[in-house]
Amino acid sequence: MLTTRHGVRPLGAPDLDAFLALARREPVVNVFADYRATTTNLEPRWLGGEMWGRFVAGELTAACHVGANLVPICATADDAAAFAERALARGRTVSTIVGPQEPVRAFWNGVASSWGRPREARWDQPHLEISTPPHAPIDPYVRRTTKSDMEQLYPACVAMYTEEVGVSPEWGGGTELYRARVAQLVSRGWSYARFDDSGRLVFKAEVACATPYAAQVQGVFVPPEFRGRGLATAGMAAVVELVRREIAPVVSLYVNEWNSPARAVYEKVGFRETARFATVMF
């Protein structure tokens, strides 16, 4: 397949090995892209979009996931600018730009004049990892959720999303799709929670994506009325223990720089910063 200007073209199944070799240069930072590639074989109909690659002298040197999320992979600022030029030709189809800070900023600088004002831009998000047992005591009552937990779990997921993103996932008729996503994570064994003696959910977290190298956690949430009791620290310690034992050896996540309570929790558990992410939301 011929490459376009600046050596950028869509990738497909024949490019999978080259793509995985690229992404696995930074297997934890690129866990989302690795997971998407291996579960879709880079087929657009399964990706729900495209994976673009940039080639230099016939070698894949950078990539960009373009679906609901646009995610640069192993991209320099120059690579991101090349991806931005291609994106301008098709217009904005994504709801979020997210990934390592430098290429996200370079990409945004290339499309900002045409893509309109974002709903929010978060330029400093520490990317955290832990590859050891948790430093804090674990909560022994954190467990995988089941379908029977959905009555408590789903409202907590909606509340977490709304608090974190600033808009409900049910807005605009998204209830069915979001409920299906929560149910999918439950069925995979990627949803964890702790319930009190009366059956109320007091902590939850999910694995968003995973490979043999790493798992990325999302949706960490303690309902407001239960905060300040150490539930998040003990709960996250339990999640780290369970995920490292059952899914992948490294647990990662990214957090807003201004979220001091969450950052304190992750520090107590033993997470360390390894990169900076940025997110632009529409």
UniProtKB/TrEMBL annotation:
SUPFAM superfamilies linked to this entry: Acyl-CoA N-acyltransferases (Nat)
InterPro entries in UniProt: Acyl_CoA_acyltransferase, DUF4081, GNAT_dom, UCP21603_acetyltransf
Domain named N-acetyltransferase: residues: 140-282
Top-level taxon of origin: Bacteria
Transmembrane segments: none
Coiled-coil segments: none
Family matches, as Pfam families: Acetyltransf_1, DUF4081
GO molecular function, one term: acyltransferase activity, transferring groups other than amino-acyl groups
PROSITE patterns with a match to the protein in the record: GNAT (PS51186)
Protein name as catalogued: N-acetyltransferase domain-containing protein
Organism in which the protein naturally occurs: Nocardioides soli
Organism classification: Bacteria, Bacillati, Actinomycetota, Actinomycetes, Propionibacteriales
